[in-house]
Protein: Reactive mitochondrial oxygen species modulator 1-domain-containing protein
Organism: Lentinula detonsa
Amino acid sequence: MPERETGGPTSLPQRRPVYQELSPILTKKVAVEMQAHQPSTVDKLKMGAMMGGTAGMAMGFLFGSWTIIRYGPGPNGALATLSKYMLNQAAFFGFFFSIGSVIRNDAELSQLQAPQMTRYAAAMAIRSRAEGVQMMKARWEEEKRRLLRQA
């Protein structure tokens, strides 16, 4: 049997492994602009459903366990009763959390809420008691001037 030489006429063609052929495609860097964006309404809905489902499972476990301990497992057995309580509570909480998270986060700040938020932000930025007193006195003086102008 003749020996095969690499590159000879009787040798098999040398082929690169698949991972080497695909590596330029997989490692190609694509310029992507990263921009922060608010979650969509569907994202908020999913997030609320997940939070509600988790809270509901925990509550279902507590109430289901209490019911099984107090009244017994019933004809279906302990595991079926507990899982029924957990799934019912998860569905209930998940449904209402998802609706609540969409309603809560859907509205933009109203024209009345925006100035209040800036005032709260300024109040949060107070670093010392003396600075807070100084800001309070300045606000009182501003209010006195405004009342004198109205009179």
